[in-house]
Amino acid sequence: MAVGISYVSVYDNQGIFRRNNSRLMEEILKQQQELLGLDCSKYSVEFLNSNIDNTDQQVLSCKATVNILSPSDGKSSIVKAAQKFCQLVQQQQKRPCDIDVNLLDSFLQGPKGFPDPDLVLKFGPIESTLGFLPWHIRLTEFISLPTHVNITYEDFFSALERFAACEQRLGK
């Protein structure tokens, strides 16, 4: 929050965060208080849980948004996007030939318009994008860190500096 990051996605391969989302929210608020002190009132958190029905979300405000993702989100996102497009075709608002990358991208972002990640901090020794949704990471910079345990402010800031030094080339 203090460095201006408004959207954070946490990819949880085993669903631990999703099952314990209230505890995660408590920990985020506790860390916010400890790290930002009196300035914490300037920042607020929106906590999304990407369940299909979205009944498990807790919202405090929307300065910073945390999105918990799991392997099932990729499949359900594709299904929901296909269903939405088929409904539009059925209602004669779209034709089957109208589907394109921008339309599909808008469907995959969902109602909150959560942006694709610019940076992924990947923890662990394995260099793989397995489990990441390919349409979300097409322009994403990956930075690997050895572990998530006891990550320091210096480690995090160093990763942000490496990202800031990256040159994106969006050529054809």
Automatic annotation (TrEMBL):
It is found in: Endoplasmic reticulum membrane. InterPro entries: Nus1/NgBR, UPP_synth-like, UPP_synth-like_sf. Its EC number is 2.5.1.87. Its main location: endoplasmic reticulum. It is an enzyme of class 2 (transferase). Pfam families: Prenyltransf. It comes from the Eukaryota. Keywords: Endoplasmic reticulum, Magnesium, Membrane, Transferase, Transmembrane, Transmembrane helix. Pathway: Protein modification; protein glycosylation. It catalyses: n isopentenyl diphosphate + (2E,6E)-farnesyl diphosphate = a di-trans,poly-cis-polyprenyl diphosphate + n diphosphate. Its cofactor is Mg(2+). Belongs to the UPP synthase family. This is ditrans,polycis-polyprenyl diphosphate synthase [(2E,6E)-farnesyldiphosphate specific]. The lineage of its organism: Eukaryota, Metazoa, Chordata, Craniata, Vertebrata.
